[in-house]
Design brief:
Layout (H helix, E strand, L loop, with lengths): L2 H7 L23 H20 L3 E6 L11 E4 L2 E11 L6 E7 L12 E5 L2 E2 L4 E2 L3 H4 L2 E5 L9 E3 L13 E8 L10 E4 L2 E11 L6 E8 L11 E4 L4 E5 L2 E5 L3 H6 L2 E4 L16 E5 L2 H4 L8 E7 L11 E4 L2 E9 L2 E3 L4 E10 L18 H8 L1 E7 L7 E7 L9 E3 L2 E3 L2 E2 L2 H18 L2 H19 L2 H49 L5 H29 L3 H4 L3
Parallel strand pairs: 1-9, 2-8, 10-18, 11-17, 14-18, 19-27, 20-25, 24-28
Antiparallel strand pairs: 1-4, 2-3, 3-4, 5-8, 6-7, 10-13, 11-12, 12-13, 14-17, 15-16, 19-23, 20-21, 21-23, 22-23, 24-25, 26-27
Length: 555
């Protein structure tokens, strides 16, 4: 019996049957782990890409010249901070919209004050910029500003700014009656050194003045004080004085594009404080006007002139003996319906502070000085200021011989009497002479002159005058003959007599010469007379001392 049969013959309770073991299977398969990891990696990469992506901005320009999507860069100080990704025409068809993606670090300075512009080659009269783009191509430049509200849409500048916010300096505002030859980019000088530029200009709200924005670079901006004077330094400044012709200009550039200069030199008032930003200053026409002393006290008067005032205009000077004390404010022409005559009133403004007073000022308080001066002969007179231009000025001076006049008032102004201009006085004298000449009886004088000429002609052609002339000719011939006879008869005898006299004088000279006998005898006689005179003088002296010798004799 085999082993299998024995086992089958054994009792059933003693048999050990195999049992199955059930193991539960996992519902998550390892196969799914691979896409899960891939999903996590992709999400992390997407998050990283999104987190590292910079801001997207939109810039509006009038044109897209030189710009290309995917190629044009956005640069700051030659460092690439972004790329243009899209260029399309704006919905209003007035501009183009440029989309650019910037680096993440640029978010902090994308404010409402940030400026963008296209940097391309530009050559103007005032400056040259963007020449490096001839090789590298145009790019969008940025002037970042961290102050202000964060934005993503900007309006690009058509021209690059003259200065960026990174440049140190101060902005000021000048106001002038007109812009003149100034333009954006015109240089600003301080003692012939360029220190800034004109940044903008616009009319004020009233449209009466031009506000000019300027930028002074550091450290020169500290030289601008509250009382600094600015003047227009454009072109050439010609001056003709006693020293000759003077030509003044700041630079060759200012001749073409204009320029502004400023200085504090020559101010009489105390040195001012440093001017704050946006401080407003007046812009004077010239340096002389900028430093001209300003007087607060001003008085206005009227003057009436009868002659021509051609060459007299607003701003013409009012002078006293060559010193300016005021100016002309207005010149008008009036016609009187009563007298049917024209008159020319001239309104002048005088600054009394220009006249230095000597003596006690209190004596003038109770005295109408102007009225007294008019009584003393104060008059206004037009005089020529330049023979080349024909400009006139009003000269005030005392004319004691002028006709009596008094100071009168007309409306709100006092009227100062005037005198005719010197040229008018000459014309008046010429007219007076011509009138007198025309008043002469020229016809009667002509007839008398003709009669006189006829009488003179009759006398000249008369027989008596011819006979007198013939007799005079005979007399002159006789005189000539007489003189000829004197030359022939009298002159030889007179010559012989002179020769004899000369011989006699020689003989006399020989007798009285030092070597002659007569001279020796005369000399000896003179010595003897001198000795006798000396003896007589001695005797007279002795008798004066001893008068008794005449009676008693000499002891």
């Amino acid at each position: 019996m085999t082993e299998s049969d024995a086992q089958s013959a054994a009792p059933t309770d003693q048999l050990q049957l195999p049992e199955s073991v059930v193991t539960p299977r996992s519902r998550i398969s390892m196969v799914w782990l691979i896409p899960l990891v891939a999903l996590l990696v992709g999400g992390w990469l997407a998050y990283k890409t999104y987190s590292e992506q910079g801001p997207t901005i939109h810039i509006s320009f009038k044109s897209a010249g030189g710009l290309q999507a995917g190629k044009t860069k956005v640069r700051f100080k030659d460092v690439e901070i972004g790329t243009v990704t899209e260029i399309r025409v704006h919905d209003d068809l007035q501009s183009v919209l440029v989309k650019a993606e910037l680096v993440p670090e640029s978010e902090s300075y994308l404010t409402e004050r940030t400026r963008f512009w296209v940097e391309r080659p530009r050559v103007t009269a005032g400056r040259v910029s963007g020449l490096e783009t001839l090789l590298s191509g145009a790019y969008i430049a940025i002037d970042p500003v961290t102050d202000g509200k964060l934005v993503r849409e900007f309006i690009g500048l058509e021209e690059p700014p003259l200065f960026t916010t990174s440049e140190q300096g101060t902005q000021f505002v000048l106001h002038s009656a007109s812009l003149g030859s100034l333009t954006v980019g015109s240089p600003i000088y301080h003692r012939s050194i360029p220190v800034g530029q004109v940044t903008s200009y616009e009319l004020d709200e009233a449209g009466e003045r031009v506000n000019i924005g300027i930028f002074i670079a550091a450290p020169y901006d500290r030289l601008v004080l509250t009382n600094t004077r600015f003047w227009n330094a454009s072109g050439l400044d010609f001056k003709l004085n006693t020293e000759g012709i003077q030509v003044d200009t700041q630079s060759l550039l200012s001749i073409f594009v204009g320029g502004i200069a400023f200085d504090n030199k020559g101010l009489l008032e105390s040195r001012g404080k440093p001017a704050p930003a946006k401080q407003k200053f007046p812009l004077y026409l010239s340096q002389s006007e900028a430093f001209e002393q300003v007087y607060q006290e001003k008085e206005r008067y009227l003057m009436y002139f009868d002659g021509s005032v051609r060459g007299l205009e607003r701003g013409s000077p009012v002078m006293v003996r060559g010193i300016r004390i005021g100016k002309v404010l207005d010149v008008q022409l009036k016609f009187s319906t009563k007298s049917f005559e024209f008159s020319i009133p001239v309104l002048v403004e005088i600054e009394p502070g220009r006249i230095e007073l000597s003596g006690d000022r209190s004596e003038l308080l109770d005295t109408n000085v102007l009225a007294r001066l008019v009584r003393e002969g104060l008059r206004g007179q037009l005089k020529s200021g330049s023979l080349l231009t024909g400009q006139l000025f009003i000269d005030l001076d005392l004319y004691p011989d002028a006709a009596a006049a008094a100071l009168v008032s007309e409306g709100d102004y006092q009227v100062i009497p005037t005198l005719p201009a010197p040229i008018d006085a000459i014309f008046n004298k010429v007219d007076e002479f011509l009138n007198r000449l025309l008043a002469l009886p020229l016809d009667a004088i002509s007839e008398e002159l003709q009669t006189t000429l006829k009488g003179a002609s009759a006398i000249t052609n008369s027989a008596e005058l011819q006979r007198a002339i013939a007799e005079l000719a005979v007399l002159l011939r006789q005189i000539r003959e007489t003189v000829s006879g004197v030359d022939k008869g009298v002159l030889p005898e007179l010559t012989a007599t002179l020769q004899e006299a000369q011989t006699t004088l020689k003989q006399v000279g020989g007798v009285v010469s030092e070597n002659s006998t007569l001279y020796a005898e005369l000399n000896r006689m003179v010595r003897e007379l001198s000795s006798a005179a000396r003896s007589i003088r001695d005797m007279a002296d002795y008798l004066e001392r001893h008068p008794e010798a005449l009676l008693k004799g000499k002891p």
